[in-house]
Specification:
The structure is a homodimer. The first copy, chain A, is mainly α. Chain A has a single domain (5-206), classed as Phosphate transport system protein phou homolog 2, domain 2 (Methane Monooxygenase Hydroxylase, Chain G, domain 1, Up-down Bundle). Chain A contains seven helices and no strands. Chain A is globular. The N and C termini of chain A lie far apart (47 Å). The mean pLDDT of chain A is 94. The interface between A and B is medium-sized, with 26 and 26 residues.
């Protein structure tokens, strides 16, 4: 087997396209639970295939510097993508309970899907500025989640919505917020990959604001 | 720097002792939010230190076979331990809302802490039987979570408990269930480390029952 760092990057892109399909399908009323399960199965297969390819690449090529950072970043991005697939399954379950479109969730999902797209673009284009932007964007997603959770807790308390529907809306909001966290993790991995700097747990990056 | 695979293992044990302190403190009424934040800060420092040590070890020593699997497993275990620390913070916040001991949560936490301890023991003792046991134990934790969530949703609906308290109990149960998932991930990493087999997404392991 002759594998190179570029092959690892290509694997991530194939995995990402499955995950993006799963995310956009999770709130789409035309997609069924079965559709999302089918995607999850493929995502899980890719998850193992990519980890195996990274292991073999490191074992056989003994990469250093940026090539080693690529292999390690790909393993981490792979883990985050797989978890996004799990979140999609959870979202679909709750969306079926709700059975109709909720505007606040739709808007939040658009923002989250953009964040995921940008995180992956920052990886493809080795763009640390875009990656930094994704990290800041996470603050907005967290605020959207807080608003939705607060609104729907109040609606449940005031009997303006049934418990089961309100609870499912809150859960979807939380799942979307988690997907945003995974996108942020990917952006942090891109910065490590490109610069060698580990900026996780760095409050300066986390509290940054977009201009 | 002369680092060996044993040093990586020692790092994990130090990180694990911080995480175990954080987990046991999260539901302990005598521990404050500040106590858990202090532990989280140390856990985050270790998180970066361990990833850096693994990277340097792979770059400088070009390990193969079990030594490489150790470095990769340590990176993954490190990530799961860090997330357990995050879950502890979330649990503490909800425990403060509740302000009293809830027997079902206490019992579930005992089971989860045992699962975490066994996952780490399986790593220390290179014991794949114990690791397999941890993976099966996760089914029981999931069942405990389902029971608590169902019970407290009913209590909220029937006005037997205030919404905020009931909601916090449900959230703690979910956080404990997530910690169980992370312990299961560690057990899967131990099996990969010791055998070279990737058993993730393998239904045979997941549905196994303890004798």
């Amino acid at each position: 087997m002759d594998i190179c760092a570029r092959d690892l990057r290509d694997h991530v892109l194939k995995m990402a396209s499955l995950v993006e399909a799963s995310l956009s399908g999770s709130l789409n009323l035309d997609k069924t639970m079965e559709d999302i399960f089918d995607l999850e199965k493929k995502i899980n297969e890719f998850h193992m295939l990519i980890d195996d390819a990274c292991f073999k690449y490191i074992a056989l090529k003994s990469p250093t510097a940026k090539d080693l950072r690529t292999a390690i970043a790909v393993m981490k991005i792979n883990a985050d993508l797989e978890r996004m697939g799990d979140q999609s399954v959870k979202i679909k379950r709750h969306q079926i309970t709700i059975g109709r479109e909720i505007l606040q969730l739709k808007n939040m999902a658009l923002e989250v899907n953009l964040m995921v797209k940008n995180a992956l673009d920052s990886f493809v284009r080795s763009n640390t500025f875009l990656a930094t932007d994704v990290i800041h964007h996470d603050q907005e997603i967290n605020a959207m989640n807080r608003d939705i959770v607060r609104d729907y807790i109040n609606k449940i308390k005031n009997n303006e919505i049934g418990f089961d529907e309100g609870y499912s809306i809150i859960k979807i909001s939380k799942n979307l917020e988690r997907i945003g966290d995974h996108a942020k993790n990917i952006a942090e991995d891109v910065i490590f990959l490109e610069s060698g700097s580990d900026i996780r747990h760095n409050p300066e990056y986390k509290t940054g604001k977009k201009e």
